[in-house]
Design goal:
homodimer; alpha/beta; Aspartate Aminotransferase, domain 1; Aspartate Aminotransferase, domain 2; seven-stranded mixed sheet; four-stranded mixed sheet; 13 helices; 42% helix; globular
């Protein structure tokens, strides 16, 4: 079986995974030890503390779930929803739609507010909806990976708090690339992934639950209908003096996450955010200089996910394929209504560097 | 953050994770590429083919789920169960109990047959139960990790098939250590983990569904109430000419699994099983020579999980702790009713070698 021989270093400029720094690769290959080994518990404790720093939260229940980012979404809904709970999902792209699907499967009564893809959630519409309805949970995507739009999560959070609902935020693409301040925003339920701006390979889903969310979890009338993702049991493995076995943690992936978080905090959150902004500005300037147009209005653009309209007459799939095979660069296609209409350039984590932007612009120019 | 500095090579002789061969560590650190990259699809195709060989099945739907072994259990139940389905769970240890918990949470009507811990499921009791009841699913653990017992899955399979039920088998600890022949046994639904006899770090759950199981999945009246583990969607990422994005696969973990399966198949399944048997016999002889007694009768013992009774007057936790800190060896404690009564010595995958058995016996002797 030979397929691993063809795996070569690639400049990952799609919607994730992103490029992985050498320290993270090195950590992945550290010796596997037991999931109850005191040395591993020490690794877990440091991961938890670093996640709290990156998420700007004091939430005790802050830990990585043993699955990819979508498992984080599943975790948040399955632990919080009880049959019949009313949930409002704010949708402006694929991941808002996925939230609706996940919550509906779990028996929630789901209402939605939908916004044009490529535009943010509008605060006024949320205010009007909350004025006339009562929800247990309001859910929104901070950084829509399918369109490159940032929604105003702080403003929405204030409304949700006044309305007495729990506030759920998807930070899969935002965490580690732009400020994420859970406590300041009043976020109760948060999930992310490791393969975007944290620059760890995919496989873990950091989550955080506020004391109010934990109270809802503790007061459930029925068991969480998902043993594997039951946070009420998993916290007994992640905190306290005596750790209880739940499932065997993904040891080596957690080494990788530890190294990834450490790398970010060593650089400093502000310098990391500034690096993302600078790479974004460099990329937009370069694309516009080549005559291309961005999908999203400047004030709502994400630095780490840049959606650009495909120039007329271009075979977009052929361009992506040539970038990959001839230049070793992956960029992303459009999804849903934007398929065939946009490319998505990711500048996430370790990828967000001037030399990488320079390289993709040069390569794109030569292919077009 | 320094905890990674204390992670040192450890002889993993507990109930899993097991020691990881160098080729697998090397694969974990290969460059991350995109989850839709044609080179990655090639890696996936080879993994699928190797899993079919190790599981001895022609099942098309054979793939690793993106979670640890317990996610495999969750996957099998959540895809197969519809509300009110009658399920029979055969219980002779922790993992049978977990099956009952998982299935009950999902709304199944669960019946159980319980057997003393340390003994196998009795075929006669299953026959009697099936004579008087009709079930959609009958579920059993092949190799009970909590006790070291092998249950007669071939004989049970014949009964389940005659009874017209679907047959679910937990092969978390057996796969790659003793013969697992899904098609010959008539297994419809199977799950395993990577951190036992496959000797890949924890993080993936290989599963397999027979055509009959896939038919039940296709004919569900309701969506699978778990988006993340919905196999009806995930198969569109794992097979066919055009692959559809579901969630971002855990790329580097899958490199590791590829290398682990390749390592096993290069050695050959029969030699691998023989190596497990030889290590088991060497360990049992050594423990008995030290005056200790095995928990399980010889004909039901698993080679990869050896439960031995703790000699009277021994502080069992202190022994385990000294083995770990002074000798770099992890062994396992007892669970549930066997806590404080047994140790569990794992001889799984790469761990199952004469020099390792020699080392643990010598170390144990010096500690006792």
């Amino acid at each position: 079986m030979n397929a691993l021989k063809d795996v070569k270093e690639t400049l990952l400029m799609g919607p994730g995974p992103s490029c992985v720094p050498p320290a993270v690769y090195a950590a992945l290959g550290l010796p596997t030890i037991g999931h109850l080994d005191p040395r591993f518990i020490a690794v877990m404790n440091e991961i938890k503390s670093m996640l709290q720093q990156v998420m700007q939260t004091k939430n005790e229940v802050t830990l990585p779930m043993s699955g990819t980012g979508s498992a984080g979404m599943e975790t948040c809904f399955v632990n919080m929803i009880e049959p019949g709970d009313r949930v409002l999902v704010l949708i402006n792209g694929v991941f808002g739609q996925r939230m609706q699907d996940v919550a509906t499967r779990l028996g929630a009564q789901v209402d939605t507010l939908e916004f044009e893809w490529g535009t943010p959630v509008q605060v006024g519409a949320v205010r009007a909806k909350l004025a006339n309805n009562r929800y247990r949970i309001v859910a929104v995507v901070h950084a829509e990976t399918s369109t490159g739009v940032r929604s105003p999560v702080a403003e929405i959070g204030a409304l949700v708090r006044s309305a007495g609902a729990l506030y759920m935020v998807d930070g899969v693409t935002s965490l580690g690339g732009i400020p994420v301040t859970l406590d300041a925003w009043g976020v109760d339920i948060f999930y992310s992934g490791t393969q975007k701006c944290l620059s760890c390979p995919p496989g873990l889903a950091p989550v955080s639950f506020s004391p109010r969310a934990v109270e809802k979890l503790r007061n459930r009338k029925t068991k969480v209908p998902n043993w594997y993702l039951d946070v009420s049991m998993i916290i007994n493995y992640w905190q306290g003096a005596k750790r209880a076995y739940h499932h065997t943690a993904p040891i080596n992936m957690l080494y990788g996450l530890h190294a990834a978080l450490d790398t970010i905090l060593q650089e400093g959150l502000e310098p990391v955010f500034a690096r993302h902004r600078a790479a974004h500005e460099q990329l937009v300037a370069g694309l516009e200089a080549m005559g291309m147009q961005m999908l999203v209005a400047p004030e709502y653009r994400l630095p780490m996910l840049n959606a650009v309209k495909i120039p007329a007459g271009v075979d977009e799939a052929a361009v992506r394929s040539r970038l990959l095979t001839e230049h070793g660069i992956e960029i992303g296609a459009g999804l849903g209504p934007l398929a065939g209409k946009i490319w998505r350039f990711g500048l996430m984590g370790h990828t967000a560097r001037p030399e990488n932007v320079e390289r993709v612009l040069r390569s794109l120019e030569s292919v077009l």
